[in-house]
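Practice problem: predict the structure.
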Amino acid sequence: MRCVLRANETTLRTLLQGEKQYIIPLYQRTYSWKRPQLDRLWSDILELLDTTGTDSHFLGPIVLAPSHNMTASGVQSWLVVDGQQRLTTLSILLAAIRDLASGPSARLARKISTQYLINEFADGINSYTLLPTQADRAAWRAIIDRMPNAGGADKIGDAYRFFRSKIDQLFLDAVGDSEGDEVLEKLEGIVATKLSFVEISAQAGDNAYRIFESLNNTGLKLTQADLLRNYLFMRLPETSERVYEQHWLPLQNLLDEQSLVDLIWLDLVLKGNKRATLHSIYEEQHRFLETLGSEIAIEQWIVALNHKARVFDRVLNPEKESDPIIRYALDRLRRWKARVVHPAALHVLLSYEDGKMNSQEVSDALRAVESYLVRQLIVGTGRAGSNVLLADLIRTLGDKVPRQDQIIKILTGQRRRFPTDQQVRAAMLEQPFYWRGREWQKFYILRCLDEAAGRTEVVDYENSGLSIEHVMPQKATAAWLNELEYDLEEFESAEDAHQALVHAIGNLTLSGYNGSLSNKNFPDKREILAKSGLSMNLSIADSARWGVAEIRQRGEFLANKAIEIWPGPGESHNPAVDRRLASARQVLSLIPAGCWTNLLSLAQAIGTHRRTIGKLLAENELTNSHRVLLRDGSIPAGSVDSQEWLSRLEAEGVKFDARGRANKSQHVDAVELVYPDGSLTE
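Answer:
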């Protein structure tokens, strides 16, 4: 029997509100989204959050088939044939928004519950608007019903904690509680009305599993560049063959498919289009091209795009740049491996092509963009929406020539957060640099620091097999702990000093001897490092010992070098808002139910001193603060009602021994707080 499918565009609000229940069938896999998928969705939402107007983002189809069940309370059931991962993820996000709503937003919390998450007048499992497969239901009910074990270590719990953390990160930009409430209201509006789907509904009697099989037997999709090309040459009935051969085909041959899509987006950004996102390229270019009334005007636009493509090709492939100063600056950006640099780099090079800048000014401007990204990585203030901020840089520049001082001025501010010298220095002394960013980005920063120190011989960084090495090893031996005991400074024990400093940049270097260095004692490591061609290793080898003072002294030296290499704003631009409280909220929200951490691990994850975190916990009521215990797993003494705290943790699943100490297997260390999905080196 042939299936008849009906399709119409819809939003999450339209889909979820009313007496409905969406059931994930048994043949569907359990909830499986991980951090990369969650990051992409959050990035899309941030783009909508940073734009105004009627922009929306298309998430794809939701395919539904009617269930035979109709509950006594009148709830209509639907089977989710396709799109369950997106539907589940967005429902988790709505639950996170609900749980962060307070004060004036308490009304918002009730709205989210009754409109999107719960069928208020139904009973039992029929009360859940979305009902996942049986394997996911316990985790799902814990979140929807706000149970103590909500946000556990399973995939659903991880997604919930991810969104709680990301929303807390948005609060870093909020000035006060009222603005925080506005953020929640706007987020709910975006999720409910700005994310669109095509709802495809089967008819009663259709075989839902057969529909599922056919939908997953998919072919190649047209890209937005394909759609635009088809539209363009439909608009060129008289000149299409000539324009295609002379202008479009060379452009298409020069760039790969993704780069071509990026270029078409960049063309919108350079025109100052505030609605342009990587998901609305065709729509926005179509809108612009509709204003071009003749074939000549359309051909001129394609010619201009061809010119941009040749300049963009030099951004992507710096070896094609003839000027050595510009080539070096472009190559530095390429090593960073981030598409977010493309809008600024293309804009700067186009200004150079127009004769508005010389090669040194181009190099300085590109260094400012590089500095922004490097400093944010060092300080830990980068976010998934950096592409939006750097695209907005172009719009804010307008007709101004994009020189270094203008770029730094625009990228400095509360929302853009260009870290100051003081912030960079503090981060390099106190924070675990080894956990920041991608592996190649950390390698690049250490490489630049070594180059700036001066080398005794030429080093082939790309092909010499160098990797990041801990001088004091990650696993502390008895000999290394004895070394630390020599001068603990403010630390209570050698173990605490090791945990606090092992991943600091002062303890990191580049080496091709990782296997032979391993956990050797420092005198043995000195002999090996003394043979290195890297200046940073020779300076380490000159040290008589390697402890707290030496690691911090080297961190100070490298911080000063970093500030020289990567220029930033003056200290007068430093925001007065202390973000440590908001950062504490964000990291605390990542601790799964049934787990605990200790004060030093929390301080390291946030990037500040243990005493500072202790003070913040004592002075503020913070979500999950009861999950911060002493190093041995015991409940802190003082004003805490120990029995109430113990009962609360046990209800969440934390196990305690007869002495009142939490199970060490349930401990979450600083690495797991920063990288809860285990993606330390991704």
